[in-house]
Amino acid sequence: MKVRLLGIPVEDGAGRMGCEMGPSAYRTAGIIEAIAELDHQVEDLGNVARGPLPAVTPPFPHLRRLPEIAAWIATVTEAAYRAGDGALPVFLGGDHSLSAGTVPGIARRAAEEGRPLFVLWLDAHTDFHTLDSTRSGNLHGTPVAYFTGRTGFHGCYPPLAHPVPPGNVAMVGIRSVDPDERRALSGSGVTVHDMRALDEYGVGTLVGRFVERVASVNGLLHVSLDVDFLEPAIAPGVGTTVPGGATFREAHLIMEMLHDSGLVSSIDLVELNPFLDERGRTATLMVDLLASLMGRTVMDRPTRSFAA
Q1: Beta strand 169-174 with 41-47: parallel, antiparallel or unpaired?
Q2: Which of 68, 123, 194, 256 does the annotation list as catalytic?
Q3: Backbone region of residue 178 per phi and psi (left: phi > 0; alpha: psi in -120 to 50; beta: other values)
Q4: Active site residue 212
Q5: N or C: fewer beta carbons within 10 Å in the chain?
Q6: Is 226 tagged catalytic?
Q7: Catalytic residue (one of 96, 222, 252, 259)
C-alpha cells in the first residue's frame, strides 16, 4: 500500500495551545518507520501551511479564531483531496477542527470514484455543535456538524460541495455530550455508541456492524481518531481528557478489525498535545494504533523496556 503522511499543525480550534506540535511528535515517535516496517511505501508530504485569512466576521462574539479556522478548512480540504490520489492519506494533527477539511476533501474524491463515504468517529465528544450552539467558542467542536451539512455555517466556513450523509457516520466511545448536541443528534441519523454501549455489547460487535454496512455498499471509510477516545491513564497527552475511555486492548482491536476489513481509505490522528504528554507515551501509543490499522498483529510486537 502507498501511504501519504500530511501534517496539519492547527491549534486554533482548541482551548489550549500545543496541538501544533503534534505532527512533529508523531514523526519523532517513529511513524514513518512503523509503516515502512510493514512493507508499505511511505511518502511524507511535510506540513500544510494555512492559507490567507478570509474576510469573515464572527456572528457571535465568543467564537474563537473563526477566520483562522475558515482558512484552515479551505486549505486542508484541497490538500486532503490531493493526498488521497492513489494513496491512503494519514492526517497528523493538530486539533479536531482539521476534520472539517479532511473529510470534505476525501468526500470529493469518493464522489469522483462513485463510492459513498462513511466516517468512523472515535472520540469522547460528538463535535456536533454549530456556530450558534457552541458555548465555549472552541471550533474543534464543530467539524461533524459541518461536514454532515447542518445549517449555521453559511458565510463563515467554506461552502460544502460533498456533505457526508449523517446516516453514514458512526461515533464510538462517546462520553461527553452537551445538551444542544444531544438534542441535535436525536433523529439526525448519526449512530452514537457511548461507553455504556461498549461495555454492554463490546467494541467488536459495534464496530463490526458498522464495517458490514460500509462493505455492503462498497463504501470508503474515513477514520478519525481523537486521543481523548482513549483512557487518560494510557494517553495523557491531550487537553480534553474525559475519564472512562477505551482501553489499550479495545483500541487495538478496533484497529485490527479495520485492517481486516480493507475498507479504510484515510485516517485522522488528532488532538495530540505533546506539551501535556509524558515522555512521548501518547504519541507512541497512537503510532502503535496506526500500525495495527496497517497490519501489525499481536505476534509482531516486541517487548519494550521503559527503564530510564
Answers
A1: unpaired
A2: 123
A3: beta
A4: no
A5: C
A6: yes
A7: 96
E runs forming strands in the chain: 2-8, 41-47, 88-93, 117-122, 169-174, 191-194, 220-226, 264-270
- Under the banding of pLDDT at 50, 70 and 90, the label for residue 245 is very high
Annotation says 125 is catalytic: yes
Which one is catalytic: 231, 271, 277, 288? 271
Domain coordinates in residue numbering, the chain: 2-300
For residue 12, indicate whether it is catalytic.
no
Alpha carbons 104 and 155: distance in angstroms, whole number? 17
Catalytic residue among 228, 250, 268, 288: 228
Catalytic annotation, pick one of 11, 127, 181, 277 = 127
The answer to whether residue 252 is catalytic is no
Q: Give yes or no for a contact between 22 and 92, defined as CB atoms under 8 angstroms apart.
A: yes
Residue 164 has pLDDT above 80, yes or no: yes
Options 20, 68, 140, 288, the catalytic residue: 140
pTM as predicted: 0.96
Active site residue 140: yes
Q: Identify the pLDDT of residue 297.
A: 85
Superfamily classification of domain 2-300:
Ureohydrolase domain (3.40.800.10)
Active site residue 300: no
CA distances from 247 to 28, 203, 232, 244, 304 (A): 24, 11, 9, 9, 19
123 is known as an active-site residue: yes
Q: Mind listing the pLDDT tens digit for each residue in 187-215?
A: 999 999 999 999 999 999 999 999 999 99
- Mean pLDDT, all residues of the chain: 96
